[in-house]
Here is the input.
Amino acid sequence: EAGVAQSPRYKIIEKRQSVAFWCNPISGHATLYWYQQILGQGPKLLIQFQNNGVVDDSQLPKDRFSAERLKGVDSTLKIQPAKLEDSAVYLCASSSVRGRNQPQHFGDGTRLSIL
Amino acid sequence: SQQGEEDPQALSIQEGENATMNCSYKTSINNLQWYRQNSGRGLVHLILIRSNEREKHSGRLRVTLDTSKKSSSLLITASRAADTASYFCATANTGNQFYFGTGTSLTVIP
Here is the structure.
């Protein structure tokens, strides 16, 4: 089966600019996650979707980050405006059933650099 | 931090040796999972152990879980150069929250 697809692989922007990332999960996977991974750290969950509804966005900085999953398939994560501390790899993952008790399948991420 | 903590932060061994890394966490869990991450890539799921299990095997991997000590260990036997990667534990707690640890960077020298 095809894996989780993410684009772009790399993005360089200046602070205060906007940026968007795209994720296409594994076909049939109802649960989708966005993580932020700062260099040298483990991934931090930003938001979890079940189909097109938000299950958990408690760690999403809502003043600048937003995410949507229209039609319960693809998802986009947006940052507006970007800050220097947003430099990180943004990972998308999906799993076949609801809940965090299932293995997650990850894409290769988007590496974001803020100048 | 609510994240798990892996120990050691970095580990370097010769090919063929065994590698052991540990994970400690703070809250009650439903399960604990181990993932591998190669440089520049996403994470790959290795093994899941439920809170009522004490040991689990998968190929060259052996995971133990001690819920009384809130700790887990991952043993990789007969290591290979291809095992070089970062390894993360992730906990799903009873509040249905999911946290990754800080990771162990493993280098296997051919």
User: Anything to note?
Assistant: Chain B touches chain A at residues 3, 30-31, 33, 40-45, 48, 88, 90, 92, 96-103 (CB under 8 Å). The longest strand of chain B covers residues 29-37.
